[in-house]
Amino acid sequence: MAIEFIFNILNSNLKNYIMKISKEFQNGFLIFLGIAIYFLLMNLVGLSDVFYLRLFNTLFVLYGVNRSIMMNIHDGEVFLANNAKSAMKTSLIGVFLSIIGLIVFSYLQGGDQYVQSLSKTFLFGGNPSVMTYSICLLFEGIASTVVVTMLLLLYWNNRLVTD
Q1: Which among 16, 97, 141, 146 has the fewest CB atoms less than 10 Å away?
Q2: What is the pTM of this model?
């Protein structure tokens, strides 16, 4: 993926510094980059108000969390609870960074008026503020964090079970 290519370039230039950053933060940042670039592209082509296109954000979360679990397995960590903690941290970092990015972007684009131009079918009745919109997206992100983590843990648990 293009995002991984960009991250590898950064990693090669700042290898000593980045190696000190946890894999959860690295992969959470990849989730943030994927969601941010996807959202900016949707905004650029005028599709940011289409609710169903935002479901593709889950693919970036799946990628980042799966990458963390695979890195753990490569390092010899196959204990389910440790992988669950790592997966949750990765996903939550991605969600929090994405929400912060959305808040900053929304205020740069006009604040509450910009948020009201986004999807009308989202969780609200009336005219949401930037913070209301962001808090609802935070809850949605936390819920997707749990779902994605459980799905990937079940997938990897079934692949790693030995008798």
Answers
A1: 16
A2: 0.79
Which two three-digit tokens encode residue 34? 């994927």
DSSP-H helix ranges across the chain: 2-13, 15-18, 23-44, 57-74, 80-108, 112-117, 130-160
Q: Kindly give, in sequence order, each residue whose CB lies less than 8 Å from that of residue 19, ignoring residues fewer than 6 positions away.
A: none
CA nearest neighbour of 95 among 122, 125, 58: 58
Residue pair 31/64 in contact by the 8 Å Cβ criterion:
yes
67 near 86, Cβ under 8 Å? Answer: no
Tokens of residue 152, six digits = 């990937």
**51-105 pLDDT, tens digit each:** 777 778 888 999 999 999 999 988 888 888 888 999 999 999 999 999 999 899 8
Structure tokens at 156: 């990897």
> Residue 87 and residue 27: Cα distance in Å, rounded?
10
